[in-house]
Amino acid sequence: MANWIQVVQHLKPGGIELMALDLLADDPEQGWILALEGDRDSAIAHWPQLAPLASRLLFLDKAPGWQPGLVPRLMQLMRDLQIEAVHTHHIGPLLYAGVAARLAGVPKRLHTEHDAWHLQQPRRRRLEQLAVALAQPTLVADADAVAQGLRQALGRQASPLYVIKNGVDTDRFCPGSSRVAREALGLPQQVPLIGCAGRLEWEKGQDQLVAALVMLPPDVHLALAGSGSQQAALARQCAQLGVAQRVHLMGNLAQMPQFYKALDLYCAPSRREGLSLSILEAQACGIAAVVTDVGASAEALCRRSGALVPSEDVSALAMALNRQLNFGLDQQPRQFVELQGNLRQTRAAYAALRRNTQEVPVC
């Protein structure tokens, strides 16, 4: 196998970063992940999950703003490591590493877009068009909805375009004992428990879920896994609405399968989203989901067991949550994930593109 490198903006807990780690774990002896921002020690301190792969992680500690000097640094790094395939995730890495890879003569350049909402902004759309023209990568979308957004933004530049949907490790994310999981996490046992995992940011919409909790029976509790800039605001909202005792702010968790197993129902109340790994992870653990109809969330949802609701409609969200808690369909969402969102399929498809085979159909 040839040496290859993935390039991300940073290595903080998030869907893009988790997918990059999952892809690297399939081929750690030949692969690296390079983060434009940050340094190794700080990244591992904030995200211990990185530690087992520390020797394969590289950091440029990029300063804020446009840094054209990074391009020659990346070119030299790729030559030193004898890189034959570069895989960029999102627009910043494409601008730097995609261009560097082409200038360095790296024969295989892949670029994955994980959401398309940002391409509706004229400046971001022009940047994407410029980066694609300069780097000339093989384009990949992680969902059908993202592929549609790329075609609208890039026109002829988005041909050919491959769709490789995100996948999760169904051996790691599997059903288990709710009682054991709640005991380990310090969560109450005899209550209906809704969970949500993700960065605590406006676009993830946890504030909508807290508002919906007020409309649910008083014994229903909510567990939020993750951290972010909205953590203090969410705590204030819980206090103001009188639900602070029913909301459990868990922070970043190392054992996410344990979190999902503790739940009765999963909710992704996002305002913006790509194809969410957390929806797939929860369903792989046998937990049905209620998600807002944004981005590619509908593609991650088992429609036989879960529910899709409009974003910014708290009443509809509360009604769907209550209905699922009381009358959830007797359908297991795990089978959907095994067929539609399995990490083995995702890894195989990306490996096929790196090998220049024709195993991945063009969208």
UniProtKB/TrEMBL annotation:
Q: Where is the Glycosyl transferase family domain?
A: 181-326
**UniProt KW keywords:** Transferase
Record carries keyword Transferase: yes
Against InterPro entries, the record matches this protein to: Glyco_trans_1 (IPR001296), Glyco_trans_4-like_N (IPR028098), Glycosyltransferase_grp1 (IPR050194)
Q: Per the database record, which ranges form the Glycosyltransferase subfamily 4-like N-terminal domain?
A: 33-172
What one GO molecular function would you report for this record? hexosyltransferase activity
- Pfam families according to UniProt: Glyco_transf_4, Glycos_transf_1
DNA repair among the record's keywords? no
Coiled-coil residue spans: none
Q: What is this protein called?
A: Glycosyltransferase involved in cell wall bisynthesis
Question: Which organism is this protein's natural source?
Answer: Ferrimonas marina
